[in-house]
Amino acid sequence: MNRSLKITLILCAAMLVLYAAHRHDAASAATALPDPAADQSLAPSKGPSILVVAGGCFWGVQAVFQHVKGVTSATSGYAGGTVKNPGYEDVSSGETGHAESVEISYDPSQITLGQLLKVFFSVAHDPTELNRQGPDSGTQYRSAIFFTTPDQQRIAQAYVNQLNQAEVFSRPIVTQIAPLKAFYRAEDYHQNYATNHPDNPYIATFDLPKVQHLQQQFPNLYLAAQ
After folding, report:
1. Local confidence pLDDT in tens for the 226 residues of the chain
2. How many domains does the chain have?
3. Which of 49, 64, 103, 194 is the most buried (most CB within 10 A)?
């Protein structure tokens, strides 16, 4: 573990008690949402599809989607910036324009894009927080959907409009919807972080509750650890 990550963990642990009384993130108050009015049908045959999302620290977002049936892999990384091949310290500076993101590979014959988006907006993060999630702040922690096809853009935008019109959140959704220009895989020590470090105070407080909310709200989609 590098020095910057150690410092980040120490600072986050120190903030847990202060933040506990005023948490807006989805892990503490997951919201039950309607199904997307616009969605794709399940594909007739298997074939991988990709969705890239950002919702704060990628550890928790990755952990959520690793427990979703139909998801074949969830990889932590960086997207939305202007610098090629950025590293964690580069992105953490907030100067590269990247967001901590997760690349979700899924089987469209088992799960639809709309179902993934419902999980994303319900339990993976709080889409009404601008440039922050939990104790983490900065544009690198923004809420975003990086689409790869016009259909993804259409469905994502339609769902945001639907949720805003229904006023299911107390504040407007601030999720950025932008084309995916590149996804850069994060360093190995960031992969499967929540699974590998369940006793870490940050993981136990902010990320594992998201997985618990997934199990509670989406029992038909929840996939137990293998």
Report:
1. 454 554 455 444 444 443 443 343 433 346 679 999 999 999 887 789 999 999 999 999 999 999 999 999 999 999 999 999 999 999 999 999 999 999 999 999 999 999 999 999 999 999 999 999 999 999 999 999 999 999 999 999 999 999 999 999 999 999 999 999 999 999 999 999 999 999 999 999 999 999 999 999 999 999 997 5
2. 1
3. 64
**CATH code for the domain in which residue 55 is found:** 3.30.1060.10
Question: Residues 27, 57, 61, 104: which is the catalytic one?
Answer: 57
Q: Which amino acid is at 29?
A: A
CB crowding 200-214: b at 16 or more within 10 Å, else e: bbbbebbbbbbbebb
**CA geometry: angle 8, 87, 124, nearest 5 deg:** 60
57 is catalytic: yes
Whether 222 maps to a domain, the answer reads no
